[in-house]
Specification:
The protein is of the alpha/beta class and 280 residues long. The chain has 9 helices and 10 strands. The longest helix is centred in the N-terminal third of the chain and has 19 residues. Bound molecules: 3,4-dihydroxybenzoic acid (DHB) and fe (iii) ion.
Length: 280
């Protein structure tokens, strides 16, 4: 039987990918940030699952506004880094896990989560930056990846509660997969940020901290946040935080927080990272 190995929340800020790709990790602006990642990177080097489900959003790279699916699972055996305007990031091709991905699709649809299925999608910074956060610059990514893409960019996005409930169903699906493998799940995006309009640059450390505290001790509180709550408190792109709820729903009711790192600003965004492990 497959089991949940760990969970992680991390922002997926593209400037982090650019700093890594261009060898800027030691520069003044970045030093403190990358120092804060070190314990997470050490943990990931010593604790390696077989597969990671990366919950992320596409930023109009694979999908345009012509095709919007609320939840999409990538079932192919590889995913190429997307060209986001400056050519694709020079990072390894992401290796998929079609057997587990199809099992997830079947189990989730039979549990009434009507997932869209993608046989071919390039993956943008939403997915590749978290891999760089965890693993830096390897020749090959050390884990297989199942991309789970969530629509957070076009209203109506799924609710915070629906995302948590999807996570609970993902946990059930993993536990009914026959092979003895370890599966981690990462929720990406956020934390508070707004990239456009009069409030561009919004950062709300208090809201972000309460959200991360609740992910550990009271995850149901985070399912009660409305879209308006996210926009008001965390800026127009803060809605990406609902993807952390999918990760949390897939963890046990009680979790232990192994590491937390919060750093502002990164680019004009709040960066957060949290590693969780089931307590029971
Ligand atoms: C930026 C883009 C993102 O998708 C995100 O989640 C955070 C920051 C940016 O362009 O700075
Ligand atoms: Fe984003």
């Amino acid at each position: 039987m497959a089991k949940i190995f760990s969970g992680m929340g991390t922002s997926h800020i593209p400037a982090v990918g650019a700093a890594i790709d261009h060898g800027k990790q030691g520069e003044d602006y970045w030093q403190d940030y990358f120092k804060g990642l070190e314990p997470a990177r050490t943990w990931h080097a010593q604790n390696r699952p077989d597969v990671v489900i990366i919950v992320y959003n596409d930023h109009a790279s694979a999908f345009s506004l012509e095709q919007i699916s609320t939840f999409t699972i990538g079932v192919s055996n590889k995913f190429l880094p997307a060209d986001e305007g400056y050519g694709p990031r020079k990072v390894p091709v992401v290796q998929g896990h079609p057997a587990l991905a199809w099992h997830l699709v079947e189990s989730l649809v039979l549990d009434e989560f009507d997932m869209a299925i993608s046989n071919n999608m390039p993956v943008d910074h939403g997915l590749t930056v978290p891999l760089s956060v965890a693993y830096d610059t390897p020749e090959e990514w050390p884990v297989k990846v199942i991309p789970l893409c969530v629509n957070v960019i076009q209203y109506p996005q799924p609710t915070a509660k629906r995302c948590h409930d999807l996570g609970v169903a993902i946990r059930k699906a993993i536990h009914s997969y026959g092979e003895d493998i370890n599966v981690s799940i990462w929720g990406t995006g956020g934390l508070s940020h707004q990239l456009q309009g009069e409030r561009a640059g919004v950062i709300n450390a208090e809201f972000d901290t309460v959200f991360m505290d609740n992910l550990v001790a009271d995850p149901i509180a985070n399912t009660k946040l409305t879209h308006a709550d996210f926009i008001r408190e965390a800026g127009s792109e803060g809605i990406e935080m609902i993807m952390w709820n999918i990760m949390r729903g897939a963890m046990a009711p009680k979790v232990e927080e192994l590491y937390r790192f919060y750093h502002v600003p990164v680019s004009n965004t709040a960066y957060g990272l949290q590693i969780l492990k089931d307590s029971e």
